[in-house]
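Lab meeting notes turned into a lecture example. A postdoc, R.K., suggested we walk through two folding results consecutively so the class can see how the record format repeats. The first protein's sequence and structure tokens come next.
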Amino acid sequence: MVKKGFLLLNFLGFSFKKYEKIKGCFADIDEILTAAEGSLLATRVFDDADIKKISFIKRDGSLDKELELIAAGSIDCLDVLDKDYPQLLRQIDNPPLVLYIKGDRQIFNQEILAIVGSRLATVYGISVAEEFSSRLASLGFVIASGLARGIDTAAHRGALSSGRTAAILGSGLLKIYPKENERLAESVSHKGAVISEFPLNTPPLKENFPRRNRVVSGISKGVLVVEAAIKSGALITARLALEQNREVFAIPGNIDSFLSQGTNKLIKEGACLVESFEDILGELPFEVRKIASAISLELKPEEKIVFDIVRRKPSAALEEIAQESQLSHSSFSRIVLDLQLKGLIREFRPGIFMSTAIGKEKVS
């Protein structure tokens, strides 16, 4: 459980760098709550305004109220010293002192890949984000994003269809933003985690979102930008990813679209141009779980015909697959069902199928 001293520093808006100046002054961070004003001033980190805030917080019981809300909402709360605090995030320049988590705190033990982009996404961008997130989630990645409208929402929805996802907020967990994504956030909490560094009732203030972005990239091994204007939060996330020594990927776009200007600029500056899933997997410095099991299955000749048709295409309509396979209706229907049960293909929209195995690998 989080230490109250860390909750206090978080309420004050203290950064990790400020905490590093404080920690040598106290044997335990919770001593801040009982220290005399003179002792706090002696640290030369707390000023008069901070001490007044501390006195007010202690008088009005804010920390106890926060702990009650945490317990009532079945929320995990980790401080930066907790053994379950994500190791990758702890390594960034200024990690959050506290993480509030609604869902599975063990999600940080999985390989995480971020997918971000414009709130004003095109139909193309939403389709790409959903398809990539679904495909990557089916291979064992946790897909991280910011729960914003547009690309973020598509990334979460795509991941939920075949795996797990993490939503990082620019507000407190009790102030989901945007409001229309409250139901999506609930789904994410059941199949992943909703995460915030802000106290539970913090509203979605403008200045919170750049801080949110460093967490999105900080917990991830890489960041894929799908669509982004030249000035956008997604580009901030990409810049932070580079500073954190993460991989940056970008989907190329139409040169006439302002939503492609940001991604195309990233590619010019050295981001990995992504046209297929293999472009991402080839750059990441680790092996993806589940690929081996997915591609080592021995398929019957008719199953391999259908599987190869689906795998050659980003997505394929059922009628198109049936026509190309030249199989009888009864055989075709059975094979499609068998391939779904084996986890090699999935129906991500009514009548539209995609492969969940990597195209360059072989299925015998």
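The second example is placed directly after the first for contrast:
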Amino acid sequence: MIEAGGTALLTLRDAASVKTLQELLSISDAPATEATVKDHARFGEIDFKSPVFAPFADPRYSDFSGIRIWKYRKLPEALTSPGKVLARFDSGDPAWLSFPLGKGTLHVLTTTWRPADSQLALTTKFAPLLHSLIANAGQGRGVYFVGHEGIDSPGIHAVGDRRIAIQIDPAESELTPLPEADLRALGLPLDEPVIAKATTSNTTLSSAEQESRQRIGWWLLIAAALFYLAETAWAALAGNRANPATS
């Protein structure tokens, strides 16, 4: 049960499927509609502090704009106001919402990953997104990093009557190359690699060989021209002998 601390994901296949959400939230007379999508929609604003999207906070992985969405369901404010919007489409309509239900959380995706609805299942974001949802199931609604409430190691930790997931700050995975001066100060050899010298030598040999071949070709061309001239002269001389001039 969600209320007992579970986590569930509800995908809206069509406008009629919003009835399930209405029943879970005990809200009636709040129908959904099919959104009017021209060509396709894309993901726009995303809350990377939420547990689901936190693994994508690094700028290298945070671009969801390449995922095309053909169809999605537009929810009325009566259904969106009780929850928190974690992601929106470029139109501003909610794409992913989370609702607190007792001790648990209900996640709602206003589209699906069916090919008729979106390209979500065909992207590299799909598997990590589901993994993030499962990994954070029942672990609270916030994102906590090492150092929270004195916890100095990542993992699942008990805090009071809750169990929360402690993650490593994404900033710790950002690597910046050291300047050459610092590397030399550490005593690291920075001379030109042997392989680079070998490559230069091979390049030089290749150029010399090519030049040699060009010279040979040039002399062959001259020899052919001389042979042609000699053959022409010999033919002319032979013709004069065969037909001596008469007076």
